[in-house]
Amino acid sequence: MVLSHTMRAVEITAAGGPEVLKPCILPVPVPGHGQIVIRVAWAGVNRPDALQRAGMYAPPANASPLPGLEASGTVVELGAGVTRWQIGDRVTALLPGGGYAEYAVTMADHALPVPEGMSLREAACLPETCFTVWSNVVMRGGLKGGERFLVHGGSSGIGTTAIQIARALGARVFVTAGSAKKCAACLDLGAERAFNYRDEDWAAEVKGMGGADLILDMVGGPYIARNIRALADEGRLVQIAFLQGARAEVNFAEMMTRRLVLTGSTLRPQSDLAKARIAAEVEAHVWPLIRTGRFAPVMDSEFPLDRAAEAHARMEGSGHVGKIVLKVE
Fold first, then answer.
1. How many degrees, rounded to 5, is the angle at CA 313 between CA 307 and CA 315?
2. Which of 45, 48, 286, 294 has the fewest beta carbons under 10 Å from its own?
3. CATH top-level class for 6-125+298-327?
4. Is 123 left (phi over 0), alpha (psi -120 to 50) or beta?
5. Nearest to 40 by CA among 48, 29, 51
6. Quick one: which H or E segment has residue 30?
7. In terms of pTM, does the model score above 0.70?
8. Residue 58: how many other CB atoms lie within 10 Å
9. Which fold is adopted by the domain 130-264?
10. Which of 239, 240, 243 is CA-nearest to residue 231?
11. How confident is the chain (329 residues) per 10-residue block, as mean pLDDT?
């Protein structure tokens, strides 16, 4: 397949608000060993994209400086050593960056086949959230059937994914969200209780039910101490982001006497091998849930690629429920 030498993309012109995202023309990326080039149809929009745009989340060495950590599309070029994929295969992939463009490059084993019957628009919503949720809730957090699971930001892309996967595992799911509409959306997905954090003491409520065996948090700041109070004895807190700050005062004596586990991770800085292992787990355990109708991405809205700034404004306004995507093709 003969590719164009240049492509449309959206770049970060300076650290700042959504307005610093500008359309541009760049060279098409070239695959290295073990990599593929994808002609992007749709790209997911995620909080780390906004953090990178604001100058708070630098891309890894050798990654594209463009934002965009997930995309769906068609394989158009293979690097040396790639055996699983063929030109023309439809894939959805975790990217080290570069999703806001017509072409993106990633490791071949960070891509997964588009589930049968699923559109490329929906498939673009899967990698970042599924990799994050499965690796933190199951691989790191060890969630099991029957356990009480609390997820903050239940109406976000991460939250809506976590609710469905946890329910499929047989867990009891509790969430926090910022409006009655968002709480209702979480209940519709299978959450047992949804607490409006603006006017409910979710920590006291959860503690009154016996405490959470596992909490998935991306808020941080003042939530950290409240999360610890809301945990059951031998409970686990998994931190994946810090929307309200990374610093908190913690009583480690309580952690010891109640045998709590405080852990966390970020996906992007992990090694290629670690991401490949997560991809294999997601394909083995989450893809069957999609095939049987037990999990589907919740879609909020779509924007053309050259209106990525509007997509970021939508996300940072926190009015969305589920995933926001960019239409590239």
1. 110
2. 294
3. alpha beta
4. alpha
5. 29
6. none
7. yes
8. 12
9. Rossmann fold (3.40.50)
10. 239
11. 84 98 97 98 97 94 95 98 98 98 98 97 98 98 98 97 98 97 97 97 97 97 96 98 92 95 96 98 98 97 98 95 97
